[in-house]
Amino acid sequence: MPDMEHEAPDRAILLMGPTASGKSALALALHERLPVEIVSVDSSQVYRGLDIGTAKPTRAEQARAPHRLIDIRDPAETYSAAEFRADALREMHDITAAGRIPLLVGGTMFYFRALEFGLSDLPSADAAVRRRLADEARALGWPAMHERLRALDPEAGRRINPNDAQRIQRALEIHALTGRAPSELGRAAPPAPPPFHFIKVALMPDDRAALHDLISRRFQDMLDRGLVAEVERLYRRGDLNPEMPSIRTVGYRHVWEYLTKRINYNQMIARATAATRQLAKRQMTWLRRYPGVQFFNAPGAGKGPETECLEHLRKTVRPVGKSGVIIKSAGAGRPANNNSHNGPG
Is 18 annotated as a binding residue? Predict the structure, then answer.
């Protein structure tokens, strides 16, 4: 019998990658072969009604492999990295208590970092301050707001992309509430130690031109499946605006601009695909700097990422901790004690 006081921590798998790299398909394939339950790591898929443009798993896919932390917020609400971390850890403990492995899948890289390394003790969101900052951004533009951040906190200004409106707003909000630079506050509080042992894998395309082509074709497919109508339903609610995190999502803000006649249809397509390519570039840059990641090529010639990733996980994950998990070989089917959890939505 192992010494319970010195029992190794439960394992969790982090499956990361840029947008359009095939993460969701790989997660579904791994769910068929491993005793895993999927937890979404996507700051846009948390919103109800944002389905097509976020590439949210379909109802059929969710019936096949339930995803937790999807459809848990109304688009008028905010959702912070701190809230994600608390929600994700709760779901992960629930999964391991059932004897299974959490498989966290997505492309919101800051959420992965918050999960693994913790967050500083920063003030909660303040709706009044956020509205004031959003009003200023509408008048001045987010690049000007980024310049303000650079003046107040040069370190945060260098770290945050000038087009990342959500993080610019949060950093300025923290400064407004505390009078201190967010970077200074971040150094003041040591991060919480990770409560799990994280096995980090990522899909990384080696052909950028092919990825760009895929992004273009995927956005056109979203339009064909009704993205404009989906955004129009959100617009007709009357309580949403383009400064809200939900509507700032890539693709949604561009269709919103088209519906409000700020741009034409072709401009909408061009701007949305360009923004998605920029997002993918930022995600890949972040991943290359993230420690301990095992990279796999996005789908292509030779052995697919499903086979290679499965082989890697079979070597890496062992029966540890309370979960007592055992990975089955490819083609062996799902375990008999399927403790799937139908997550939100």
Answer: yes
pLDDT for position 14: 98
d(CA 170, CA 165): 9
pLDDT at 27 over 90: yes
pLDDT in tens, 277-301: 999 999 999 999 999 999 998 764 3
24 labeled part of a ligand binding site: yes
Distance of CA 271 to the CA centre of its chain: 21
Domains and CATH numbers, the chain: 4-119+191-316 (3.40.50.300), 127-188 (1.10.20.140)
| 289 vs 323, more confident | 289
- The contacts found for 7-10 with CB under 8 angstroms, 24 or more apart, are 7/320, 7/321, 7/322, 8/197, 8/320, 8/321, 9/195, 9/196, 9/197, 9/320, 9/321, 10/92, 10/96, 10/101, 10/196, 10/197, 10/320, 10/321, 10/322, 10/323
Query: Cα 298 to the chain's mean position, in Å?
Result: 18
**20 known ligand binder:** yes
Determine the pLDDT at residue 165: 87
pLDDT in tens, 169-209: 999 999 998 898 888 877 766 566 678 999 999 999 989 99
Q: Any binding-site annotation on 17?
A: yes
22 marked among binding-site residues: yes
Confirm or deny that 23 is annotated as ligand binding: yes
Which segments of the chain does DSSP mark as H helices, in order?
A: 23-33, 59-64, 81-97, 109-117, 127-140, 142-152, 154-159, 165-178, 182-188, 208-224, 227-236, 252-259, 265-289, 305-316
pTM for the predicted model, two decimal places: 0.79
